[in-house]
Design brief:
This is F-box domain-containing protein. It comes from Daucus carota subsp. sativus (Carrot). InterPro entries: At3g26010-like (IPR055290), Beta-prop_At3g26010-like (IPR056592), F-box-assoc_interact_dom (IPR017451), F-box-like_dom_sf (IPR036047), F-box_dom (IPR001810). Pfam families: b-prop_At3g26010-like (PF24750), F-box (PF00646). The protein has a 5-stranded antiparallel beta sheet with strand order 3-4-5-6-25, with helices on one face. Strands 7-8-9-10-14 form a 5-stranded mixed beta sheet, with no helix packed on it. Strands 11-12-13-15 form a 4-stranded antiparallel beta sheet, with no helix packed on it. Helices cover 12% and strands 41% of the residues. It has 6 domains: 44 residues, no CATH class; 217 residues, no CATH class; 116 residues, no CATH class; 45 residues, no CATH class; 201 residues, no CATH class; 125 residues, no CATH class. Helix 5 packs across helix 10. It is mainly β. The chain has 13 helices and 48 strands.
């Protein structure tokens, strides 16, 4: 085969079917070069079209006027019967290009290419696309030059060069002799204005299809029964006008089209405007293109048409006033298509037979002009999408055929890890999964499951020490993950790090040097994304900070309050908002005198509020997002026994309080652990859940390792609650941190620092709950050069 001369090879290729020609491209680089040469494409096309009675494969697209993508290939050539030739593969495309798009509209077709546009909620055009529905390849056109409300766009493929042109025609409601068209050329990949001058004033209405490509020129049907002929390859100036047939009857402009290589015109006489005339169908053929000479081929009264369906037959006799011509069959001159009420009708002119090929949906039945029809003929050689713009290829049509609602329902049944893996399937899947609506829907679906407990972990941290955080306990789903804060080590540098708070999947930390706070950081330990906050407004020596994450938007607030050694009714908060990217001062007025001690963890987020445990056995509740500077108080349970503050927490969705009584002040009482839940938030009503003597706890089967000592009650301090197990609480005793089950009375050591001295208050505990959907770390708008790595 390698010895065959090129002319002989080319002659052999031209005798083969198109599919075989493309398969031959893979034989060798030389064959690929021969077949890919534009000269071979022109030669192959010429050879095919000169064959007697050649009819290319074709189909007819129908679409509803001003409705989201509902196109159908209503009639198709036998060669296309088993091929998915639709625009459904473009549905994910429009959303990936512009998330404001809500629908796709088919606009025009030419030599195997389709022109479509995406629309927003207001039916404004967002983007234009040129695609090949057979190869599923498409290209997005650059942004057009203007945005008028009503505009018509058509596509024309140049037979000689294979380049295509997209022309935008603006609706003109006033007569004018000068028009500005916007023309896009695939050769230059740019839009340009083309000024066209006419001999007489014209105006255009773009609501219906009145444009056709013929003889390498664009023909636009104006409202005053004139066809404007325009060459998009030229720079404008003069244009040609062709008058419609002078013996037409209807005052309403009909439709022009191309059938069997001739330009034709069809109209339906409207009995509403011509009451003396019977409703009739007229068809003309442009016999002499240069002279603009038309001949009447058919004039048929609608009542003469008949059908095997009696209802269709009766429609023509009684509904002539709402019957409109739609299109011609591209290769059968005896067939035209009409829109009669809510039906698309195929009319056989020679036999006067009609049949329904499409019916509008219920929501469109009451409106006129439901249908638009686009003849689509495949050229002998595929028209290239673009030579300069980036050509995209759609994914497997089987995936595209799934409706978005069904796809989202399937994705919501999957584990979170699998969902994030599916982001890489396609741009459309990525767009669906990244949509905040999907995150909210996924979260809601997870929360409605019975007995749902999200994955959680318990961090412990050593007070005022370097990077000493540990994950004490973790959910089974986190058991095999590298779940820690070690990734922050290189970011912080030589400074020590202190864990401060957690909320909705994010952690708040600070870097310190000589007990002074240097910077605040917010991070997601699962995704290892982080952001550094701007410097606060002030630098007091002792300060407490808390984070509150909005569950809906993912924005967070960081609240700082300085230690108050003397009781006061007025104090200042510093609040940082990730949405605004800056700190602000807030002066709070209270009805009671309070003071803060910030050495221990006395802060919790609950119901969108930040609750601070202040020194006089009172909880200060404060809304950092509220517009008011007021706050309110919740008194601790009246039956508390300890003179020292306990700890607040949230477990199983309830606000809880825990204390360990101190026998130094209650000599006749045993040391005990008390747990309360806030039964009525508005009324501040507490309920005592349990009161357990410390000597009732025991170490289970492994007493030697736990070494629980109830006699050292002075050194026992409550630390916190398990977020989803109400029976599990955490206590600190000396150098050890214990997990205590209040139901079984069993204690178990979960952390120990043997090198520490016997000083009090070494541990802090931070429950970390993963939300059903990962909380994103917002991009730092406060520093454009900062990256949330």
């Amino acid at each position: 085969m390698a010895q065959l001369p090129d002319p002989l090879l080319l002659e052999i290729f031209q005798k083969l079917p198109l599919k075989s020609v493309f398969l031959s491209e893979s034989v060798s680089k030389h064959w690929l070069s021969l077949i890919s040469d534009p000269f071979f494409a022109r030669s192959y096309t010429r050879n095919i079209t000169t064959t007697n009675n050649y009819t290319p494969p074709w189909t007819l697209f129908s679409t509803f006027h001003e409705v989201s993508l509902d196109e159908r290939a209503i009639i198709r050539d036998p060669e296309l019967v088993n091929i998915d030739i639709s625009l459904r593969f473009m549905i994910p495309v429009i959303y990936s290009v512009n998330q404001a798009a809500v629908s796709l509209k088919l606009l025009d077709s030419s030599k195997g290419l389709l022109l479509a546009c995406s629309l927003n909620d207001d039916s404004q055009v967002l983007d234009y696309f040129v695609c090949n529905p057979l190869t599923k390849k498409w290209v997005g056109l650059p942004k057009f030059l203007s945005q008028p409300k009503w505009v018509k766009a058509v596509i024309m493929v140049d037979d000689d060069s294979g380049d295509y042109f997209v022309v935008r025609i603006v609706q003109l409601t006033c007569y004018s002799k000068v028009f500005n068209f916007e023309v896009f050329s695939s050769e230059s990949s740019q839009w340009k204005y083309v000024k066209v001058c006419c001999e007489k004033g014209l105006r255009f209405f773009v609501m219906r299809r009145h444009t056709v490509c013929y003889n390498g020129l664009i023909h636009c049907l104006a409202d005053n029964h004139t066809i404007l002929v325009f060459d998009p390859r030229s720079d404008g100036s003069k244009c040609r006008l062709i008058d419609l047939p002078c013996d037409r009857v209807s005052r309403i402009v009909g439709v022009i089209g191309v059938s069997c290589g001739f330009m034709r015109y069809v109209e339906v006489a409207d009995t509403y405007l011509e009451p003396t005339e019977e409703p009739s169908l007229g068809v003309w053929l442009l016999k002499d293109y240069d002279a603009g000479e038309w001949i009447l081929e058919y004039r048929i009264e609608l009542s003469e048409f008949c059908s095997s369906d009696l209802y269709v037959t009766s429609m023509f006799s009684r509904l002539g006033d709402i019957t409109r011509a739609v299109a011609f069959h591209p290769f059968d001159r005896d067939i035209v298509y009409l829109n009669c009420s809510s039906h698309l009708i195929c009319c056989q002119l020679s036999t006067k037979m009609v049949e329904v090929v499409e019916c509008a949906s219920d929501k469109m039945r009451d409106s006129l002009f439901n249908f638009e029809v686009f003849p689509f003929a495949l050229p002998p050689w595929p028209t290239p999408i673009s030579r300069k713009l980036r050509v995209h290829e759609s994914l497997d049509p089987l995936l595209v055929e799934l409706p978005d609602s069904m796809l989202m329902e399937i994705l919501q049944k999957l584990p979170l890890k699998s969902i994030f893996c599916f982001k890489s399937v396609s741009k459309h899947w990525f767009s669906l999964i990244s949509n905040p609506k999907f995150a909210k829907s996924y979260t809601l679906q997870i929360f409605t499951k019975n007995n749902y407990s999200p994955p959680c972990a318990i961090f412990s941290s050593l007070d005022q020490m370097g990077f000493q955080e540990r994950v004490l306990m973790r959910d089974q789903e986190l058991a095999h993950t590298n779940f820690s804060l070690q990734f922050l080590g290189p970011i912080i540098g030589q400074a020590s790090t202190k864990l401060l708070d957690s909320s909705n999947g994010l952690l708040l930390l600070c870097s310190m040097s000589d007990s002074q706070i240097l910077d605040y950081y917010v991070c997601n330990p699962l995704t290892m994304k982080w952001v550094c906050l701007p410097q606060p407004l002030r630098q007091p020596k002792w300060v407490k900070a808390a984070i509150l994450v909005e569950k809906v938007s993912g924005n967070f607030l960081v609240v700082r309050v300085a230690e108050l050694l003397f009781r006061s009714k007025v104090f200042n908060f510093e609040i940082f908002s990730s949405k605004l990217g800056e700190w602000r001062d807030l002066t709070m007025n209270c009805s009671r005198r309070i003071r803060f001690f910030v050495k221990a963890r006395h802060t919790v987020c609950y119901n969108g509020m930040i609750l601070w445990l202040v020194d006089n056995h009172t909880i200060l509740a404060f809304d950092p997002e509220g517009n008011t500077n007021d706050c309110h108080f919740i008194d601790l349970p009246p039956d508390t026994e300890s003179m020292h503050l306990g700890v607040l927490g949230v477990s199983c969705g309830l606000l809880c309080y825990m204390e360990v009584s101190n026998n130094k002040y209650e000599e006749f009482r045993e040391q005990s652990l008390g747990v309360w839940t806030l039964k009525d938030y508005d009324a501040g009503e507490w309920c005592l859940e349990c009161r357990i003597q410390l000597n009732e706890f025991w170490c289970g089967d492994d007493a030697s390792d736990n070494r629980w000592d109830p006699d050292t009650a002075l050194c026992t301090r409550p630390l916190g609650f398990h977020p989803f197990d109400f029976d599990m609480v955490f206590l600190e005793q000396g150098r050890r941190l214990y997990c205590c089950n209040v139901s079984t009375r069993v204690v178990k050591i979960v952390d120990c620092e043997s090198h520490l001295n016997n000083s009090l208050f070494k541990f802090e505990m931070f429950p970390f709950v993963l939300p059903p959907w990962p909380t994103p770390v917002p991009q730092p708008i406060w520093e454009t050069d900062q990256s949330a790595n």
